[in-house]
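Team,

Forwarding the record for the chain on the shared tracking sheet. I've put the sequence and predicted structure together so nobody has to dig through attachments.
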Amino acid sequence: MIDHTETATPSTESQEAADAAEAPQLPGDATAPGDATAPADATAPADDGAEQADLDRLAEPDPAAAPDDVGEIAPEPEAAAADAEPEADTDADEPPAVVAAATGPRTVGRLVADVLRAAGVRYAFTVPGESFLGLLEGLTAAGIRVVTTRHEGAASFMAEAYGQLTGRPAACLATRAVGAANLAIGIHTARQNSTPMFVLVGQVERAFQGREAFQEVDQVGSFGQLAKWSAEPRDAGEVPAALAEAVTQALGGRPGPVLLSFAEDLLDEEVPAEVSVDATRAGPPRAEVPETRAVLQLLASAERPVILAGAGVLRARTSSDLTRFAELLHVPVIAAWRRGDVISNDNALFLGMAGYGSPPSVRERLEQADAMLVIGCRLNEVTTFGYRIPAAGVPWAHVDLAPREGGDGLLPPTIAVRSDARAFLRGAVQRLRGAVLDAGLVDARRATNERDRATWEQEAAVEGGEWSGPGIHPGRVIATLRRVLPDEAILTTDAGNFGGWAARGFRFRRPGTFLGPTSGAMGYGLPAAIAAGSP
C-alpha cells in the first residue's frame, strides 16, 4: 500500500495563470441622451437621481471567440509601465505532459526526476545526502539543475521563493529525519504562501524500518502533516500512482507543497520500460457569467466598496487587469499582507497593504467598507486584523480557486466564485466596457477615494520625525532604498518588527518585486534573495 495523508486547509490563494477570458459582444451605445448614468470609463459627472448600475445591458460573451480575441483596454503609458507583469519562463504555464514509457528500464530515481521535469521543475535545492543519491543522479540526467546549500532550511526557503516568484514549482531534498526536520520550516512557509513545491526526502532502507534505525522517523506522519499531501511508496509498483497524485496536489486547486519519502534502496530499483505516469491536470476554473455579473453589481452599487487582493493575482500575472478593473469601477485596492506589489503603489486607487506595519487608515478603510471583493487571498489572521475583516453584515464576494465556505468562526461570503484570478478579471473587464454606472455613486466614490488616498500617503511616510534609537533612522533607509533601487528590483524580507518599516513605507511599482513569508518564518530573506537571482 501507499502510506499517504492529505492535510486539508480551507480556502486558497489563486495560484495559476489562465488563458484570456472569452470575448463578449460589446454593446454599441453605453448611454442614451439624457440618461443620468455614465459609462464605466467615463469621467464626466451626471445627475444624481440615476438608477443603480445597469450591468445587465451588457451582451453575453461569445463562446466561439478565441482567447486571443480578448480586447485589451490600454492603460495610460505610465500605468502600463508601472503594472508590467514579470516575465515568466517560456513554458511556465504549460500543463505537465504525460511521462512516456522509456526505451529501456530506468530506476525509480530517474522516473521521479522525469516526472518532476514534466511538471515544470527546473531547480532542486538540497544539502546532498547518501539516502537519496539515486534521485540526485536522476535529476541531473533529466536536466534539472541541482543547487547545493549550507542548510536544509535555506534549501526549502529557496525552493519556496522560486515558486512564489515564478509560479513554477521547485524541489527541495534532504536526508531522512534530521534533514527533513530542517526542511520543515520551508514546508510550512510554502503551505502558508500557497506555493507549489516538491519535497523529496530519503528514508532508511525498507529492511531496517520499524526498528528505530539510524535517523528513522515516520516522515509522512510527522513532517508530511505540514504539507498539503504526503506519501511514502513501499515498492516500485506504487511509485507511478504516488507521483501522479503528487503533481495533482502540488499544482491543482490551491497549490502547495507535497512530500514524498523514498527508501534509499527503493530509488535504485528498476521500473519496467513500459511504465508511464499521467501527470496532466485540468485547467484552472473560470467564473460563470451570472457570477461575474453579481460581483460587478455588488461593487457598482456600493458607496464605499474596496478590493482586497492577494497572491492569487500575482501568481496569475494579472495585476494590470486588476488595475483596469479597479479604475473602471472606481474602487480602491488594498493589498493582503506581504502582497504589497499586487498593483503599483503609485496608482491613485492603491490604499496600502493590510497587516503588520500598516498605517491605521488601512484597517479603518476595510472596516468602513459597505461592499468588498476578496480576490486571490485566503484571509489569514494578519491580513484580516484578527479575523475582523470582512466586518459582520458587510456583503462580500470571494473569487478564488477555493473560496471560503464559512466555519471556524469565519463568515461565508455573500458571493463565492471558484475561478482563477486572471480569468475572472479579464471577463469582468470585458463586461465593464461600455457598462452604465450610477454617476452619483461614481462621483461619491471618487471623492472618497481621493480623501482616503491622501490620508494613506500622509500616514505611510516613514522617513520623517525624530529617531531616538541606535544607528540610522530606519525610515530613511527605506526611503533611500526606494530612491536608488530600480523599479524592477526584487525586495525580500524576513519576519520581525523591522519588516514594518518596509511594509508601510516602501512603494512597490512593479508586480513580482516582493518576497516575504506569510508564515512569519525568520531566516527567509537571504535564501529568497539568492533564489530570486537564479538565472
